[in-house]
Automatic annotation (TrEMBL):
It comes from Streptodolium elevatio. One of its GO terms (molecular function) is ATP binding. The keyword tRNA-binding does not apply. InterPro entries: AAA+_ATPase, ABC_transporter-like_ATP-bd, ABC_transporter-like_CS, BCAA_Transport_ATP-bd_LivF, MFS, MFS_dom, MFS_trans_sf, P-loop_NTPase. This is ATP-binding protein. It is found in: Cell membrane. The chain crosses the membrane at residues 108-130, 142-166, 229-248, 294-316, 328-349, 361-381, 387-409, 421-444, 450-470. Belongs to the ABC transporter superfamily. It is a multi-pass membrane protein. Its main location: membrane. Residues 507-740 form the ABC transporter domain.
Length: 744
């Protein structure tokens, strides 16, 4: 979409030729200036603490918090999560029986057990996507039904392959827990109890996991025989199914309601939300610095957390010759100590968050860091019991921190993207952290021993994870301020729409920041386009005009701000979907298939109407009527056309799509004046037909000829918005850009 390079315009270009050194110095200065603008934009904390969501809110008891959303949701979701945990632990206990029943090797059963963890990650993305698009109680219900059915299938599996398939199903069904449950809880209960609910739910799941061996072992022993292992699965399937069916009845909470209540004092409901694209959601989330930092921190911590238990068990057996029972006891004491700590951690986090979210997040980091010292101390203990006891503090600290992943992320993730935010963190934590850590620790442990593996993997990952959490906490207030700003803008927009429903602009670009990687190129860009209006986007080279078109048509996701089509937010909608809603782009440069004929090019463009012949013919008649030249030579190869004719064909192809909003990037670039005149006549026709047009144009003459209004950009910032005529009168702006480069 970028235009071919042009000589740098501007007054400077008109002065004496610049030396290479002068040019380099100019570029360095410009980049330094851009960086300064970027760091200023990022440093800015827009709102005072008490205006941030959840900060300074009235203190709520857990009972009050649960009552606010009805305790059914929390109880149902916690019951489902606990059954997940119980089921996972069951597999460990029953593994030897299953191995024998199917005549599998140790490796095969370990692989099947571990693989369901990987399936869990596979399912997280679609579950997160569903959570952000659909009624969440239904997603929870269907995932719960699938879980129950698959658990049941595990009990009925006739051979190892079918058992593997059933485990696959269990893993995918379980993947709803983090993204869907997290999102639903966050919208059902007030911000002030999120920490306590997270610890309560983690505690319940841990307890279920801890009791599982007893219950599962007991059922299998009672049933007896070679098939005794099947019964725990068959029996667990039933309560899981009942809870899942109940979940369908749970109320669907309004998205972001507590953030809105805290910031605006009321709830602004998006009654017809647009579908969110996974790519756009990820792009946006990874631009939010506290989220990016927290996700990377937790995945670093995942390197040591998930393999830590296995390595400790191996060490306890190999080095201290502890029996299975002793090791089981060691695990239980570790687990129980965490259960003791959790009831304190939740209230503490909630209290701190209400006072200062940055401190709440930083403290999580500070809690992790001592692990880097505690770990070596534990691993150099002289005997098994000392080894076990010394491990408890670090276990408590890291488990408490992990229980807070949800509350920390939910506070800053845009409420429309809660599900995808949780899915993204699941991928980082489990796929990168847990899998990467397991591989690395396994390799090092094989080459040396579990102690070396723990120290080499665990200590650095703890330091990096802790440090990143502390560092990310510096950004959280800024990110929360952006949440506030966005919510306020939504409220204003809702009021505006209620006040004047007939005059909703076709396009709205609000507070848009855009970055390529770490380089921010748009700063707080804002403008509206009314129905039937032609707006020219003008500005210096590299000012960000094409980037704005990308943000409007969905080829790029802004790091901040909103894009609306007819009053509905489309910021996270996929480009092809925006195409269906009527936004189409004519990119700069070549936009035709040169080896095809004109007719074939147009037929390609009409693909969308392939099932509606009448509509398709109508489009052909309209478009060929606009371009009689093309109509006369439909069999000619597009590559043999002149540049101007190819531009006509490209425009014709875009018009085949029946746009409501047409975005044009550089209409006249490199074309002869006579061709430009023809193109302008066509644009006039389109205007008369009521099409809304946004055009990026280098030539002021052309812009003035066709645009009703103009937006002038400089270095990523809007410097002027108003009638195109007025821009021509602003000598300072017009001269700076267009002097000496009129093309039309
Ligand atoms: N894909 C990309 N990756 C990194 N930086 C990019 C990318 N595309 C554009 N940029 C940079 O972003 C800034 C804005 O570019 P953009 O193409 O939007 O400007 P423009 O106003 O359309 O300029 P021009 O008229 O020269 O095309 C420029 O500094 C450009 O170098």
């Amino acid at each position: 979409m970028n235009a071919p390079s042009r000589p740098e315009p501007g007054i400077d270009a008109m002065q004496a030729p610049m030396s290479a050194a002068g040019l380099a110095a100019g570029l360095i200065d410009a980049e330094a200036e851009r960086r300064e603008r970027q760091s200023e934009a990022q440093r800015e904390v827009l709102f005072a603490d008490e205006l941030l969501p959840g900060v300074g809110d009235r203190q709520l008891s857990l009972r009050q918090g649960l009552a606010a959303g009805g305790s059914a949701t929390f109880i149902t979701l916690t019951a489902l999560a606990s059954m997940d945990e119980l089921e996972s632990a069951a597999l460990g206990v029953l593994a030897p029986d299953i191995r024998d029943a199917f005549g599998m090797s140790d490796g095969a059963i370990v692989f099947i057990s571990a693989a369901s963890g990987a399936f869990l990650v596979l399912g997280a993305l679609p579950m997160g996507w569903l959570a952000d698009r659909c009624r969440r109680s239904r997603v929870v219900g269907w995932a719960g039904v699938a879980f129950a059915a698959m658990v049941f299938a595990c009990g009925l599996a006739a051979n190892a392959f079918l058992f593997f398939l059933a485990r696959f199903g269990v893993g995918v069904a379980k993947s709803s827990t983090l993204p869907v449950h997290g999102s639903m809880n966050a919208d059902t209960y007030p911000i002030g109890v999120r920490g306590r609910l997270a610890t309560l739910s983690a505690g319940a799941a841990r307890t279920a996991g801890a009791l599982s061996p007893l219950a599962v072992g007991g059922i299998a022993a009672l049933a007896g025989g070679d098939d005794g292992w099947r019964w725990p699965f068959l029996i667990l399937g039933l309560p899981a199914l009942l809870v899942a069916v109940w979940a369908f009845r749970l109320p669907e909470p309004p998205r972001g309601q507590y953030e809105m209540k805290s910031v605006l004092g009321e709830v602004v409901q998006d009654t017809k939300p647009m579908p969110i694209s996974m790519e756009a959601a990820f792009a946006r989330l990874m631009q939010i610095r506290s989220i990016r930092g927290a996700i990377i921190a937790f995945s670093a911590l995942g390197f040591s957390l998930f393999s830590g238990g296995v390595l400790a068990n191996l060490w306890a057996e190999d080095h201290f010759h502890m029996s299975t029972f002793e090791r089981g006891l060691m695990g239980s004491i570790g687990g129980a100590s965490m259960l003791v700590a959790l009831p304190f951690a939740g209230p503490w986090y909630d209290r701190l968050y209400r006072r200062d979210p940055a401190r709440a997040m930083a403290l999580l980091g500070f809690m992790i860091l001592p692990g880097a010292v505690l770990m070596p101390i534990q691993w150099f203990m002289p005997n098994g019991w000392a080894f076990m006891l010394a491990g408890i503090p670090a276990t408590i600290l890291s488990s408490v921190t992990f229980a807070m992943v949800g509350p920390v992320l939910q506070s800053v993730v845009p409420y429309r993207l809660r599900g995808m935010g949780a899915a993204l963190s699941a991928i980082y934590i489990f796929f990168i952290g847990a899998t990467g850590g397991a591989l690395l620790a396994g390799l090092i442990s094989n080459a040396y021993d579990p102690r070396v593996a723990t120290l080499v993997v665990g200590v650095p990952s703890t330091l990096v994870g802790g440090y990143l959490l502390v560092r990310s906490s510096h950004f959280i207030k800024n990110d929360l301020s952006l949440v506030v700003q966005e919510l306020r803008e939504e409220l204003e927009e809702r009021d505006r729409q209620l006040e004047d429903p007939e005059n909703i602009p076709v396009l709205q670009v609000r507070n848009v920041d855009f970055s390529y990687g770490h380089v921010q190129v748009l700063f707080d860009v804002e403008f509206d386009v009314k129905r039937g209006e032609t707006l020219a986007l003008l500005g210096t080279n590299g000012a960000g005009k094409s980037t704005i078109l990308k943000a409007i048509c969905g080829l790029g996701t802004p790091s901040r701000g909103v894009v609306r089509l007819n009053g509905r937010t489309i910021t996270y909608v996929a480009p092809e979907q925006r195409g269906r809603y009527g936004i189409h782009l004519l990119p700069g440069g070549k936009g035709v298939f040169p080896d095809m004929t004109i007719r074939e090019n147009l037929e390609m463009a009409a693909f969308r109407f392939r099932k509606d012949a009448a509509h398709r013919d109508e489009r052909f008649t309209y478009v060929l009527g606009l371009f009689p030249d093309l109509a006369d030579r439909q069999k000619q190869q597009a590559g043999s056309l002149s540049g101007g004719q190819q531009q006509m064909l490209a425009l014709a192809m875009v018009l085949m799509h029946e746009p409501e909003v047409l975005l044009i990037d550089e209409l006249s670039l490199g074309l002869a004046p006579v061709v430009v005149q023809d193109l302008l006549a066509i644009i006039e026709r389109l205007k008369a037909d009521g099409l809304t047009i946004v055009i990026v144009e280098q030539s002021l003459n052309i812009a003035l000829a066709i645009a009703d209004r103009a937006v002038f950009l400089e270095k990523g910032q809007v410097r002027f918005t108003g009638p195109a005529r007025e821009l021509a009168e602003r000598d300072d702006l017009a001269r700076a850009v267009f002097l000496g480069k009129e093309g039309g």
